[in-house]
Design goal:
Elements: H1 20-27, H2 33-52, E1 54-55, H3 56-61, H4 67-85, E2 97-99, E3 107-114, E4 123-125, E5 129-131, E6 134-136, H5 139-151, E7 154-161, E8 174-175, H6 183-198, H7 205-226, H8 230-262, H9 267-292, H10 297-305, H11 309-319, H12 322-331, H13 336-347, H14 351-358, H15 364-370
Parallel strand pairs: 2-8
Antiparallel strand pairs: 1-2, 3-6, 3-7, 4-5
Helix pairs in contact: 1-2, 4-6, 6-7, 7-11, 8-9, 8-11, 12-13
């Protein structure tokens, strides 16, 4: 989430739509009518993004380009080269072009969960597999789809997405929607999306996103070191320490909800206890902010809109497995190529084995095995 004192790092929004455009181009013709209409809007949106992009060098050399944008794109070029040269991420045409998007976000994603579950609803597509979100290039369409889910009893959240990846199948550009987050977090977005190109496991959003988040954080730390910003590195580590406390709070809340939902209590009683837990969570967020003397402004909107299961499962998708990946990186001596190879080996294991090794699982069953609430993962999503 956004903090008042830190650059935003919208990691949970980074690639929620990343598979949709690719699937739409390849598979619209073989899907059913409803799916075809949905995928066609994704295909049209992606076509405009690719068609309107220009080489970053050309944009920088254009006399009409503003000086602030020239400076930002120069930073992008440096970070993109660092990603391939130092972080050993894919060296291709992605993030070497720029496109202006005349709206606040390039995509809006719908995340949903049943009223009495902390497990996300999933949507499945050929090739891309099942993902815990559904993305639209039109906010109006996203909100209309979300409204339909709400009428069916789901907890729903609609999230703006500043960037996405097509997993290297298309030359993804830097988008104007990415530029408002500051140069550091812009670099982090690029590292995150290139990590998806390096490793992607169909049907396992938690694995995919946590791997990319881990690469993003490690890459950003090394980027700051490379640029000789020791004070900023200290601030970055402090921010992550603070963010971990927030994620720990959200995870404990998911655990409490999971136990309530799995209990034998009547549905009406479960819903009553759910409301109590979310009311308590809102107060706990405010208390944590006061204790740390910071603000997470996006949570203002969450609280105002009414916290629900979809908010929490979205956090879990991105951060449940981060501690496991961070342990794996340490085990590989902080050597990124060795870490990538180890992650690829895990990707070939059964999902249950990956989860057991990497991922905290705050479901009623998982918490019963552990005997306590799970420990905090990495930083919370910033948007």
């Amino acid at each position: 989430m956004l903090t008042e004192k830190a650059h935003p790092a919208p990691t949970r929004a980074l690639s929620m739509a990343s598979r949709l455009a690719l699937v739409s181009v390849l598979l619209a013709a073989i899907c059913g009518c409803t799916s075809t209409m949905y995928l066609l809007q994704a295909a049209g949106g992606e076509w405009h993004v690719i068609h309107d992009r220009k080489p970053i060098v050309q944009v920088i050399d254009d006399p009409k380009t503003s000086q602030p944008l020239i400076r930002e794109l120069a930073e992008v070029r440096s970070a993109r080269n660092f990603a391939s040269r130092v972080l050993k991420l894919p060296n291709n045409d992605s993030y070497r072009t720029y496109v202006r998007i005349d709206r606040p976000y390039v995509v809006w994603n719908v995340v949903a969960a049943p009223a009495l579950s902390v497990q996300p609803k999933q949507w499945c597509f050929p090739v891309a597999g099942c993902v815990a979100y559904r993305g639209y290039f039109s906010e109006q369409r996203a909100r209309a789809f979300a409204a339909g889910l709400k009428r069916r009893g789901y907890d729903v959240v609609v999230e703006g997405v500043p960037a996405y990846s097509t997993l290297g199948k298309l030359p993804d550009p830097v988008m104007s929607t990415m530029m408002r987050y500051g140069s550091e977090e812009l670099a982090g977005m690029i590292f995150h999306e290139l990590a998806h190109q390096l490793l992607y496991v169909p049907n396992d959003s938690r694995f995919d996103e946590a791997f990319a988040v881990t690469v993003q954080y490690e890459g950003l730390k090394r980027w700051l070191e490379y640029r000789g910003h020791p004070q900023r590195i200290e601030e970055f580590e402090q921010e992550r320490t603070e963010d971990r406390q927030l994620v720990a709070l959200l995870r404990r809340t998911r655990g409490r909800l999971a136990r309530v939902y799995a209990s034998a209590a009547p549905r009406r009683e479960k819903l009553r206890r759910k409301r109590q837990i979310f009311t308590g969570l809102a107060g706990s967020i405010r208390s944590l902010e006061q204790r740390l003397r910071i603000r997470w402004p996006l949570y203002d909107k969450w609280i105002a809109d009414g916290l629900n299961n979809a908010d929490l499962v979205s956090v879990g998708t991105y951060y449940d497995c981060v501690p496991g990946f961070e342990r794996l990186l340490r085990q590989e001596g902080d050597d990124l190529p060795r870490f990538y190879a180890a992650a690829r080996r895990l990707a070939h294991e059964p999902k249950a084995k990956r989860d057991a090794q990497l991922c905290a699982n705050p479901t009623a069953e998982g918490l019963a095995r552990a005997g306590q609430a799970p420990r905090a993962p990495g930083a919370p999503p910033r948007s």
